[in-house]
Amino acid sequence: MHTSTVRSLSPEWQLPHMAPAALLEAQQRVLSILASSAPLADALSEIARFAEACIPGMFGSILYYDAHRGALRRGGYGALPDSFAAVVDGLVPGPAAGSCGTCAYRNERVISVDVFVDPLWDGFHDLCRQYGIRSAWSSPLQSSRDGSLLGVFGMYHPEPRIPSEEELKVVDYFVHLAAIAAQRHRDDQEKDYAASHDPLTGLGNRRLLDVEGNQWLATCRRRGLPMTVAFLDLDHFKSFNDAYGHLRGDALLSGFAHRLRAALPDAGPLVRFGGDEFLAFLPLDEAQARNKLDALRAGLRSDPFTELDGTTFTVSCGLYTVDKDDADLDKILVRADQAVHQAKARGGNTCASYSLEESQDLLRRQQIAKHLETAMARGQIRAQLQPIMRLTDNKAAGFELLFRTSAADLMGYSIPECISVAEEYGLIHAIGLGILKDAMALSVREAERLRGLILNVNVSVMQLVRSEFLQDVEAALRETGADPSNLCIEVTESHWLDVGGPARGSLLGLDELGFRLALDDFGTGYASLAYLQALPLDSIKIDRRFINGVHDKGSRDAALCRALVSMGQATKLRVVAEGVERREQVSALIDMGYELAQGWLWERAMPEEIAMAWLDVQNAPEGSFSLTA
């Protein structure tokens, strides 16, 4: 029982309609219920009946305040029927919500002598006529700890009445008893809530999912409602967390949970499944669910997180519409999870419905991730070198180190797919840092052969946004003794490079360390022109898609290539044409003023020892490859 002292009715209170023995028996029965673990409704109903016996002609109604839902809920009743309990269940406190709703709103006693005169009851006259209510006295049940609202004790009368001082003392006694019962229930409820809800977001946790997930499915089936389970995953959250720290990461999760609740008010359980993963059970068909989630995603774009200095964020959503024969909740969740991975595989910031075909593709990507981890552990991921050529003399100006693997398990997969999987599964930092270390070691080991040449290394934006990235690079420089001015870091365009974005800070740090910087795949990404001004770039690399038709003088490719090289020259940047495969492309590029190019016309990527031997041949006077031969 709650530790508050239980007061007894004072002997001077005269209750002529009740014999002392009957009064004592009723009081002991109530106290016995309070001391037991009886349900709240049983305890409150017994108190309401006791109060009705002490105040003849009164109808007792005790409502419990659900703080999490902000509403008064069904509690205990004496003579009032269940139909009344159903009508008032869920009453939201307000400044004019009858005596009980107003009492809860003010957290103080409200007495309506005549409900048909009192403006607090203007919206409830039909209810009053139906249940014979003419006067109402409502008192708040307050916590003895902090005075917070626990519920409301309403006493209704069939005629207008002003309570006497003696009656109010009796009312206070019953309010005291009801508050003890409500406090005990609140304590139990808070324990259950803490055990079944995530403390950061206030959403349900996996325990609540276990308890309510199947219940929700059964309820929807019984009522004939559609059922769609949505799995939501914040895009690039790990990178954001690494870049800005856990406090801002927690603020983002909390803010997203608030928006999720607001966007899906009619959802069943809303659950933080773990990390940045969320679940929503929606009584909607697939199209309706998609519309709701598309509206949520649009809101994230148009309404930045003010608590995070205007940060915008995107979310990927996976949808699985539950069939009437789907009885296994775990299977349902797996399919919704597979759907969100399908959304991620499409680039994120989208909704994807479960597809068996795409699910098989997901399993394929998971298999690639396992093979990549194995290859890393076995030292089977090593960079190969592709030359970057000077068009003026057809000599090597440097090399780009490209991801390659000797693992047999990865031979059937394309390089872009392997890199994409590495980014998706958090493997790219270890792989990328390993290749960067290889480049550093090579620049020291072959310093004489590589004199005057630059080694280019691709770095994923997912690496740049890691808070420890610069420290890892500095440690690698110390370990290898490399000169960063002989190395160029290539990065592909992304919104993470925006002014104030976490990746841009890492690029500025690399520039301070002495590395050269290149923007890869220029012209195909997020905001190319802005980067020329915002980043300390040394060079830009024109994507192969623009080079394909560069030799056709009247083509759009040719016009764009001319514009891009002019832009690079105007901003004093080296311009590299990528994907050169035909000699006529070289002639066109030279005519336009390009000085550097890269592609299969010269060589594909080569293992280090072959690349160095190729370089020796290039450096020999008779070894130069002639495009005009």
Number of domains: 3
Q: What is the level-2 CATH architecture name of the largest domain?
A: Alpha-Beta Barrel
Helix content range: 40-55%
Uncertain ranges: 9-16, 625-629
Structural class: alpha/beta
* Percentage of residues in DSSP E strands: 15-25%
Structure description:
With 629 residues, the chain is of the alpha/beta class. It folds into three domains: 20-195, Beta-Lactamase, CATH 3.30.450; 206-354, Reverse transcriptase/Diguanylate cyclase domain (Alpha-Beta Plaits), CATH 3.30.70; 376-546 and 575-581 and 596-622, TIM Barrel (Alpha-Beta Barrel), CATH 3.20.20.450. It has helices at 20-35, 40-54, 82-88, 98-106, 125-131, 165-196, 206-223, 237-244, 246-263, 286-302, 329-345, 356-377, 415-424, 428-445, 461-464, 469-480, 502-513, 528-534, 544-547, 556-570, 583-592, 608-619; strands at 59-66, 71-77, 110-112, 135-142, 149-157, 228-234, 270-274, 277-282, 315-321, 351-353, 381-390, 395-405, 454-458, 487-492, 516-522, 539-542, 574-577, 596-598. α11 (329-345) links the parallel β9 and β10. α1 (20-35) runs antiparallel to α2 and α8 (237-244) packs across α9 (246-263). The longest helix is centred in the first third of the chain and has 32 residues, at 165-196. The termini are far apart.
